[in-house]
Amino acid sequence: MGKWMARCAAVMLLVMLTGCGYSTRELYPAQYRTVAVPNFDNRTFDREVEFELREALIKEIEQRTPYKVVRTPGAADTLLEGTVVEVQRSAISRQQGTGLPQEVEVTVMVDFVWRDLRSGEDLRGYRGFSATGQYVPVRTVGEFDVTAKHRAVQRLAQDIVSTMREDGW
Known about the structure:
CATH superfamily: ABC-type transport auxiliary lipoprotein component
Largest sheet: 6 strands, mixed
Order of helices and strands: HEEHEEEEH
Radius of gyration: 22 Å
Distance between the termini: 46 Å
CATH topology: Rossmann fold
Structural class: alpha/beta
Helix content: 25-40%
Shape: flat
Strand content: 25-35%
Oligomer: single chain
CATH class: Alpha Beta
């Protein structure tokens, strides 16, 4: 009876591990070791969003991937570059009576490409890739536009790094 219980426990453990998304396959392409991340171009009137995005991308790449970020593209296997194409604000809700915005959403949109510098092949590339952040400008909460922009940039960096995975997402 003891052997049977041990086998059942082993089978249950195996089923649990395979059912929870564990895999022996690499999450990120293993043939690359380094990524260069220059500042994205910025075609908007929102200044410094490109610098914040670069820093967020570097942090995400170094925390979530096996890759090392290098400063110069000449020393890297790959290059992650892009353009901030739009920063848009829209009121989600308005105060009754005054019509002033009660909640505001900030959307940051980019075009980007992740390129293999050895072959010149584009590994991933997206146009109109975006993320949003919200803020509450009303006096009682008093959040600012930069809060929502920061949230959007952080989410955008997380999502861009997720696209670098072997499965593309």
